[in-house]
Amino acid sequence: MVVSAAGAGLAGVVAAAPAAGAASAVNYAAPAVNYVALGDSYSSGLGAGNYVSASGSCDRSTDAYPEQWAGANAPASFTSVACAGATTADVLSSQVSALSTSTTLVSITIGGNDAGFSSVMETCVLLPTSSCLNAVATAEAFIASQLPARLDQTLQTIAADAPNAKVVVLDYPDLYDLSKSGSCIGLSTADRVALNGGADDLDAVLQAAALANHDTFADVRGQFAGHEICDSDSWLHSVDIFAISSSYHPTAAGQELGYQPVFTAAAEG
After folding, report:
1. Quick one: 80 and 188 in the same domain?
2. Annotated catalytic sites, by residue?
3. Which ranges of the chain have pLDDT less than 70?
4. CATH code at 253?
5. Same domain flag for 25 and 38
6. What's the confidence (pLDDT) of residue 239?
7. What is the value of pTM for the model shown?
8. For 135, what's the count of Cα atoms within 13 Å in the CB-facing half-sphere?
9. How many angstroms separate the Cα of 15 from the Cα of each of 11, 23, 117?
10. Total domain count, the chain
11. Alpha helix (H) residue ranges in 162-243
12. 103 and 215 both lie in a single domain
């Protein structure tokens, strides 16, 4: 009878175990992710193709890194309001309305259009090196003197509108592999050095703003190394005067293999 009692007790423990395990699974289930993508063309996916017709001139692509991350991770909700050509003012006026207290994850690339890099790149493509260097210098002066305050205002507004969200600030890749510039047709090496320098200045200000606002900074430059313009397997569109807007933007591979892994690591870190 003693053995039977012990056996019955053990059976009771074993029988109870699944219920306890089930309760534990419920108690420790991962919280729902509500993801909103903000920003400019590097987040909308300009250059990646497969654009969503409803996005119009914002050129949101189904191959952009936010869409790819959402497809792989199945968040409870996903909204992209990223738009080609967006500035910090555009984010504040027409994008942050997508945020709410239920938003748990936000991504953003921003600042390049504030600094006028689209016109800088067109200058470097179409005009002599002297004009390119002057345009880059003007952009760098703006980045140093005016962009930090704009970024702070933008990130502070995001924090206020999505107080429960992790905010990931992604930067821009270096455009050229300068080690191969001598064998690469197109712009002069001086132009390429200046453009890479301008991108690095922009990235440094983005990193400082992210850290100052307690956000997560995600640097894509290492991921793009070996896949820049002048590399045989480039993930960036080179200069194309017939499709100037896509020049210097990530290809579909750049979104998938460049941006998406870096964002994934930052979102999960």
Report:
1. yes
2. 41, 249
3. 1-29, 241-242
4. 3.40.50.1110
5. no
6. 80
7. 0.88
8. 22
9. 6, 14, 66
10. 2
11. 189-212, 221-224
12. yes
